[in-house]
Queue: 2 jobs
Job 1
Amino acid sequence: MDKKAITKGLLSTRSAFRKSLIKWFEQGGKIYPWRATDNPWKILVSEIMLQQTTVSSVIANRRFERFLEEFPDLETISKAPEDQLLRAWEGLGYYNRVRNLQRAAVAVLSDHHGAFPKDATILESLPGIGKYTAGAVSSFAFNEPAPIVDANIARVLARLFNYHSPIDSTAGIRQLWEWAESLLDRKHPRIFNSAIMELGQTYCSPKKPDCQSCPVRKFCLSTSPESLPLKKPRRKVVRVDEHAIFFEKDKSILLAQESGDRRKGFWRLPLRNEEEVAHLEPESKFTYSITHHRVTLYLYRSEVTPASAETFVPVYKLDSLPIASPIRRAIEASL
Ligand code: SF4
């Protein structure tokens, strides 16, 4: 049988597939705080938070609940100063996510009279909301028939359809969304999307899929699931050295405020180039990763002449300032 006929075979049994998947989920689906609500603001917060942070880390540290205690609604976040936003997001990384949450809240208040649109295509026009997040808010909050494809669902779909092309190519992305749309249970979109996502988080895991116990095994076309999904070749890791100064005076330390796009508004230790610190011995060394960079941070305890954007900040104020986690760890280890 050719590939198209096989794929058609799975789609022709989609009704039975949906039933099996939903039945399994209803019997043992996990209960997360964001599954216990249909409030679109709370669901949007969870979706944005979970984009680059694992479920276990969000749950263990009560990040979802703590964020909503500080910003329970659109009005509260829309009025928050940037310092407060960044501090509330500290440790989660990718800080543009929280700036976009605020922009989306402002847009819902000003353009939609404070009521979230139900339709995924309208949600997608809000700042920082992509196709996946729009579908998630539309289906989880409003039970609208909007498909979703995240990393877990992409893996499940690639295996279900035995797809041997890169899922992050333009053609691959288009194909996965088509399948997500075709398989979606339009009568029960909320539960179907939760179920297929959870299948990827449980049985259909990246390294060791448990096909023997999988509730949709009889529908799955995959012959070697461990080898799927395929992806385009990865970007190489770039190693970078940073040389930072730790200068403490009168219970204050010298800090600089970031101005670049990625960490705008954050405080960091002042940096110097390698020649400027060539006469000093590093006191300590830290390593951290950011996107495809592997950074080695050398820390020098020294008195220096502050540059124009650098200022002394009292140590007692550090807790209230936004400081990226690796830099905070370096400061705390040096105090
Ligand atoms: S049978 Fe295996 S590969 Fe297929 S969906 Fe289930 S766990 Fe994934």
Note: The first helix runs from residue 3 to 12.
Job 2
Amino acid sequence: MKLTSLFLLACTVFGQRLVIQTSSILDGKGGSMRNAQIVVDGTKILSVGPGSATADYDLRGLTVMPGWIDTHIHLNWHMDENNKSAGGTRNQADDALYSAGDAWMTLQGGFTTVQSVGAAIDGVVRDRIAQGLLPGPRVLTSLRQIQANAGDPEALRALVRKTKQEGADVIKLFATSGLGAGGGQTMTDEQIQAVCGEAKALGIRAVVHAIGDSGARAAVLAGCTSIEHGTFLTNETLDLMAQRGTYFDPNLLVLHNYLDKRESFTFTQAQLDTLEKGIAPTIDVLQRARARNIKIIFGTDAVAGSHGRNAEEFVYRVRDAKEKPMDAIVSATSLSAQSLGLGGEIGAIAPGLEADLVAVVGNPQEEITAVRRVVFVMKGGKVYKNVHK
Ligand SMILES: [Zn+2]
């Protein structure tokens, strides 16, 4: 065996130790640190604190955070070569390649973990990324979306078992129609109970698309994990979520994306008006949820045109919904990690956690648009972006 192979073998076995010099860290749990060194051993953070070791990466002058987490994306929903929205409509090879492209853009945008909710093709992309064969964020996926027409409670329970068996990380169900259709409840209470109940029995999370209040309320009562969108939640349902610890995942980027890139989609003017009218209630429900200390996580509902721009959600939250920057950052890191059941692995800068880091130019606590200036991304101890001058 050559010496170089021995060296590589040693690195694989013992991990490669890297020192990152920082001047400003936001740790993902609401804390901050000045002038600390982050020591990375293999895929994990070994230590964070004062130090004088020679730095492999010098991130002084930047703000360093845990890699961001997006809890609601659609990885396969992409812009085609004519800049038109597409996804799952063509052959699998195309779909897989576009999904891989979306994953790469997302990672470059500072997001090291995403939950795709979701399509079957996500599974192979997730697995190739996990094997280290494709660059991308850590992917969790629902593999499919479960709708009211999937059958009676018994059939739905069987579908949940099948979805888990096929390798899904999470169950995604639709308790209501979309915003354009008014968001009324589509699944019966019994159907919702069947899906979330079976998921719970299997130890898998269930995230619920719910626009209107009644579907959301039924989902909260059924013990589902999170309410996605939640556009028209009443205070009573929010109170119930606070009591029960249900996560809330409001999404602003998706509405702006549809409006800003309307030429790439096929909306009628009436539909565009509905989307535009969805922004104010989303801001309102976010504020009412924040006032109740509900566990607000960080999903963008990224579709075609949003991948890589997921961080815009921070801007909408802080600039438009008047969230505190630190609340939005905790939302996108430790709280989202906790909601995914990964609180002990990702979402904070602390010893023992995966070395997932993002660094931006500027200070997002002073100017939230700093999140647009991602210059360094590390996932699991591996650097995927380093354009800091
Ligand atoms: Zn969605």
Note: The domain at 3-66+347-386 is CATH 2.30.40.10 (Urease, subunit C; domain 1).
